[in-house]
Amino acid sequence: MNFLPKNVNIRQSRFNERGFLAKLAKNALRLGKPVAVQLYTLYLLFKSPETPLQSKMLILGALVYFLSPIDLIPDFLGPFGFTDDIAVITMVCRQLQAAITPALKEQALAAVARFFPK
């Protein structure tokens, strides 16, 4: 069964691309490279025209949760602040694992490399 309306416009969502990229850049070191790669991978999947709408809605939920200042565990609580965000991101990545190609993961790795000093 498909419970999503046929006329959903994913572009009219509350996802703020610029805000997402800025928050990822600002917090990449605190999140760690594996989580930053997962986040960027979800971002790339979201932007891909091949990603089904239902998957995009799931990704959108995770990305908006990451952006939201209202969390189960507030982000300002230091290392513990991103625990809930990481759980949501990891869960969505696991659910969409079949859609994450090696090429997509390499693209995400290359993109987040700039956030981590060598």
Automatic annotation (TrEMBL):
Q: Spell out the GO cellular component terms annotated for this protein, sorted alphabetically and separated by semicolons.
A: endomembrane system
- One Pfam family recorded for the sequence: DUF1232
| Coiled-coil spans in chain | none
Q: Which UniProt keywords apply?
A: DNA-binding, Membrane, Transmembrane, Transmembrane helix
Q: Which InterPro entries does the annotation name?
A: DUF1232 (IPR010652), UCP031804 (IPR016983)
Outline the extent of the DUF1232 domain. Answer: 56-90
Q: Which GO terms describe its molecular function?
A: DNA binding
* Key word Membrane present: yes
What subcellular compartments does it reside in?
Endomembrane system
The membrane-topology field of this record reads:
Multi-pass membrane protein
- The molecule here is called DNA-binding protein
**Taxonomic lineage of this organism?**
Bacteria, Pseudomonadati, Pseudomonadota, Betaproteobacteria, Neisseriales
